[in-house]
Amino acid sequence: MVGDFRALVGAAGRAVLRPSAPVTYGLIALCCVLFVLGPAGGLNPAYGTGGELLAAQRAYFLRWGVVPAELFSGAPRAVLTPATALFVHGSWVHLLGNMLFLYVFGALTEDRMGRVQFTLFYVGCGCLALLGYAAANASSAQPLVGASGAISAVLGAFLFLFPRARVTSLLPFLFFLPLRFPAWVVLPFWAALQWLAASRSPGGPGVAYLAHVVGFGLGFAYAWARYGPATKVRAAPPPAPEGENQP
């Protein structure tokens, strides 16, 4: 996930320190382990170095990532790639940015939804976000990987459930001065940036902003339909920060 502002992690916030989120922490651990063991991390000597490593990385992304042209051509191998792509990341920056967002926003969302519901929500919205991007770029042969669509859905749900949670952000146009805003200000602003970026870069290699937009909308819509205004969480916990990177 890539945004035009970053966030500071408030170590004092119990939103970050809360231990009752085994699914969130399990997802983070799984993504990190797969990245380190796979060719993208560059640490596994089995994949070689130099050109050999680059070739292994390309083959890895094509095998486990979503390739829209293959997905919509009916290739049997491609059917499961919207699920497998959620656990594949392209670089250390990509991985760490996504996992930071999941760590911060996932714990409270999981605690509110429950473990089973959160797991189904995460995987389901993540797959649909990737499918949305693929449908809009059906002829693309560029592999799409990363958990950004699923994590964007978590952000959307978080916005509905904890709209008054404080988010400390660094805004470039204000010389990176740290400012705290409620989630109902920061997260819609982030979503708007993704929408603008998606409209300017509709296809090709790079960041799949459209997957962010689709995931965010799905997450908010699910939380609204599942919980409704009457059951919305009213008391927001201490700072829930934001930070992100690309899919």
Automatic annotation (TrEMBL):
Coiled coil, from the record: none
UniProt GO BP: proteolysis
Residue ranges of every copy of the Peptidase S54 rhomboid domain listed in the record: 83-226
Record's subcellular location: Membrane
Entry keywords, A to Z: Cell inner membrane, Cell membrane, Hydrolase, Membrane, Protease, Transmembrane, Transmembrane helix
Bilayer topology term: Multi-pass membrane protein
Species assigned in the record: Streptomyces galbus
Protein name: Rhomboid family intramembrane serine protease
Superkingdom classification of source: Bacteria
Molecular-function annotations in GO: peptidase activity
A Pfam family reported for this protein in Swiss-Prot or TrEMBL: Rhomboid
Residues spanning the membrane: 23-43, 86-108, 120-138, 144-162, 174-195, 207-225
